[in-house]
User: Which sequence fits this backbone?
């Protein structure tokens, strides 16, 4: 599909990059500020920025950009918590 519509490829990638950046800002900047202001926990949308950035990176012609999905460290942190729980069960 992209070989016939190269401009469309960049438009679709740009939309996913913009959504990823939006959800990253929402989760790691806006949610903590809202939680501090209101006095209770506000979670944002953890993991959605990872999916958007990963999708944008894999759809782009420059595939290593998919590693920018790791900017959303909630996915890496989630894996760490699961592995830590498994490690504690073995002990």
Assistant:
């Amino acid at each position: 599909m992209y070989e016939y519509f190269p401009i469309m490829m960049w438009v679709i990638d740009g939309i996913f990059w913009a959504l990823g950046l939006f959800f990253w800002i929402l989760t790691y900047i806006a949610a903590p500020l809202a939680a501090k202001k209101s006095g209770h926990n506000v979670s944002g949308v953890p993991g959605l920025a990872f999916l958007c950035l990963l999708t944008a990176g894999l759809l782009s012609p420059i595939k290593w950009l998919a590693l920018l999905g790791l900017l959303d460290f909630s996915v890496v942190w989630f894996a760490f918590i699961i592995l830590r729980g498994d490690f504690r069960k073995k002990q």
Remarks:
- Helices lie at 6-38, 48-59, 73-90.
